[in-house]
Amino acid sequence: MIQNVLVLGAGSAGLLAAITLRKKLPALTVTLVRSSDIGVIGVGEGTTPNMPGFLFGYLGLSQKRFYEQAEPTWKLGIRFLWGPREYFDFSFSHQVDRQWKNLPRSNGFYTDEDFRGVSIGSALMDATKAFPRSSRMLGMPDMSVSFGFHIENVKLVQTLESIALELGVNFVEGKVSGTERGPKGVAALCLEDGRRLEAELFVDSSGFRSELLGRALGEEFQDYQRALFCDRAVVGGWDRTTEPTLPYTVAETMEAGWAWQIDHEHHIN
Ligand SMILES: Cc1cc2nc3c(=O)[nH]c(=O)nc-3n(C[C@H](O)[C@H](O)[C@H](O)COP(=O)(O)OP(=O)(O)OC[C@H]3O[C@@H](n4cnc5c(N)ncnc54)[C@H](O)[C@@H]3O)c2cc1C
């Protein structure tokens, strides 16, 4: 039986892995190794509805606590500034593929050129609103619409770290400089300061460095560079003044790629 799991990396991937293991298999001892010299990637600001579904549904984490600490804004979809229409709202809720009971065909059949408000999600996007008011609890937002988050990676990582600590994940600060191989693959991690960490199962969440899968086990990295039109990103932004907070990501076609606008509470990236 596996009793000790070692997760390498404390970015969003490693923390989610460690939290999930402790939540679902509390008998496991979970240790997480990370290096503050290397740090986390620190970008990545838009999610799909899988993220709230996973955090609050599958893991049962407190929404109140998550909203207070991670300060996400709500994202109902993506507004594409692209194509012959002024814009095209792709909402996370079913739109063209939805069929109302009283209509013989699905929504897409009736939309034609005017594509606004095809679903509740895209109607809200059009009105720059995140949620309708609940008819049951007056004044409260009705959060049953499909949503994801705009969330700053650093705040997400801080929030997940505090949750992981509360769930009893052990944190080890140190830089992995090598591995020891055993008959079943990786047997131990060697840290720069000479420490040696054993476990029965290792999870590689070291990001682009791919310390265990890539360096130790020689797993090939499949990159899609040859098929990409653009493989660079430039990140920038400005502080919010009077702009309304958009409940969607804006993706604007440029001559060679896209410009994404992501709305946080106090600034826009
Ligand atoms: C410009 C840009 C925009 C993006 N936008 C989005 C987006 O909108 N939505 C989205 O979902 N994703 C986005 N991404 C991707 C997303 O940011 C990353 O996939 C994700 O944050 C990676 O998290 P991670 O935990 O895998 O890696 P990292 O955050 O890189 O964490 C790696 C961890 O491993 C540790 N580590 C590595 N090597 C060692 C070692 N030798 N010893 C000890 N510790 C080690 C590090 O200290 C760190 O804790 C974007 C990425 C970029 C570059």
Question: What is the compact description of this entry?
Answer:
With 269 residues, the protein is of the alpha/beta class. It is 23% helix and 25% strand. It has helices at residues 12-24, 50-58, 63-70, 108-111, 120-126, 153-166, 211-216; strands spanning 4-8, 29-34, 73-75, 77-81, 88-91, 148-150, 170-173, 176-182, 185-191, 196-198, 201-204, 238-239, 249-254, 257-261, 267-268.
Structure description:
The chain is an alpha/beta fold and 269 residues long. The protein folds into two domains: 4-45 and 152-216, FAD/NAD(P)-binding domain, CATH 3.50.50; 73-149 and 237-268, no CATH class. 23% of the residues lie in helices and 25% in strands. The protein is built from seven helices and 15 strands. The strands form five sheets. Strands 7-2-1-11 form a four-stranded parallel sheet. Strands 5-4-13-14 form a four-stranded mixed sheet, with helices on one face. A hairpin with a 4-residue loop joins strand 9 (185-191) and strand 10. The longest helix is centred in the middle third of the chain and has 14 residues, at 153-166. The mean pLDDT is 93. Flavin-adenine dinucleotide (FAD) binds next to helix 1 and strand 2.
